[in-house]
Write the structure tokens for this entry.
Amino acid sequence: MPVCKHRHLDGDRSIVSIMPLLYSWTHNDFHLKTYPFQPSGLIGHDQRVSQWFLEGGLHTNLVDKFKVTTGVMQNPMTIFKAVENFVLVNGRKSFCGEFILAPQYHTFGDRFCPKGTLNERDVAKIVVAGIKEGERKLAEEGMPAVFKFWFGIGREVSPEEAVRLTRIMLEYDPSYVLGISLVCHEPSAPPEKFIEAFRIAKREGQRTACHVEWVKDREESEKDTPEKVRQNFQEDLPQLTKNLRTVIFDLEVDQIDHGFGLAENPELIKAVVDRNIVVTVCPGSLLTTHIIDDIRMLRIREMLDAGVRVCLDSDDDICMPDFYKVEQMYRDAYSRRYLDIESDLKQLAKNAESARFGNISRL
């Protein structure tokens, strides 16, 4: 059974099929007269949603881009439905595992649920209820699967607010809530801002994860050739290395998401291996956002050889390659150089399975 290790619910392809329904509930527009993603000509609904995210570059106004999906998850009914649907869609594809959702982005309200009605505690409770209902239906269908969620914390919040959100996360059953995951706009908030929140989570025995992916916003014209992409990487590497060092030694994370730049530093690779830290790598994401121009820039195979617990996943496949396309990318990148490519993929899958935190108690 393939394992999800790095999926954002508001960026997961599962939500596309129910976006019109969630929109109609949110806007009281059951005929979808104002729905912005109606198919047009040869361009279908899924394509129009994907185009919206990628237009002008995904990293441009990142939070605003995701308001397309978070914006239709602002009341108990729509949040619950989106979570249940994620579990059902992925479970029926034989996936299980984890997803990230940041409750702070689901408290803005809509016409049926005015701002101030829901707080992050309420949202987390609804998410857990959605997981339970999705799992129950899968079990009835003879396809049992287990899912948990990372309590995401968007980096725009203050250190004090991050601590408050972490304390809310601690109230929930770890059978459903894994811990905290630092997400969203990296350039504006390096990880050291959140050391106290992570220390609180660790003291309480909770899991922690942090994205390390990009450190500078660039226009698409600044990264539209392989040469520019490689130059950007060299310019960013010192800050990426600093951020990796912070999340390993100061935040003491259990999981690094993306981990871009890790493969360039043998000292940090050794620390990751020694501390048994999981590293999720999403090549399709970094290719889509033009942070890399070739999957081999990530040096996944070299990290595997060094003993790093690398896992492959899709990140936001609402507009990026899905899990199976990511696996094919790996085959295409390495099959000419290494004869036993399938053993690599088996090891990557084994890493994901062994890193699927705490699922045994509910199997």
Observations:
- The two ends are 13 Å apart (CA to CA).
